[in-house]
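Dear colleagues,

As part of the handover before I leave the project, I'm documenting each prediction I ran so the next person doesn't have to rerun anything. This entry is a single chain, and its sequence is reproduced below.
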Amino acid sequence: MPTFARPFAILALLLSSGLPVAQAEEVGCLTTAWKLIGANHRVCISAFDDPKVSGVTCHVSQARTGGIKGSFGLAEDPSQFSIACRQIGPISLPANLPDDEVVFTDNTSLIFKETKISRFVDRKRNVLIYLAISRKLIEGAPSNAISSVPIQPWGKH
């Protein structure tokens, strides 16, 4: 396979892998810089429920590039984000839950950049850990954020 085709093959593999990832729901956005032409630069907050662990919701804030390119979805968003995950109800762990698994992905450029959130299970401490990373398929990037959710009883017991 020619070198230039490898990133596209990797992208096709990721898109066709059928990973059970959550769908985000936009909660709101704030303008961080006004643009004369095109959309403003913003920070947006999205919420998603863990697709396999009921009772856990994560909120992710991400910088969104505006301007003309941003208006058409062609801009590369910066690797600036934060994550907070919380228990919102009784937590139910499936019997065959893997120790680590991708639970959410979001493209932050047209082709090569994404934010990916993985869930890790710390069985010794009875904690779910959510790790958000931003990476380019070609270069990689160290940007990351983490949130922990202790598995605790919920309601009256």
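The radius of gyration is 17 Å. The first helix runs from residue 6 to 16.

All the best with the project,
I.
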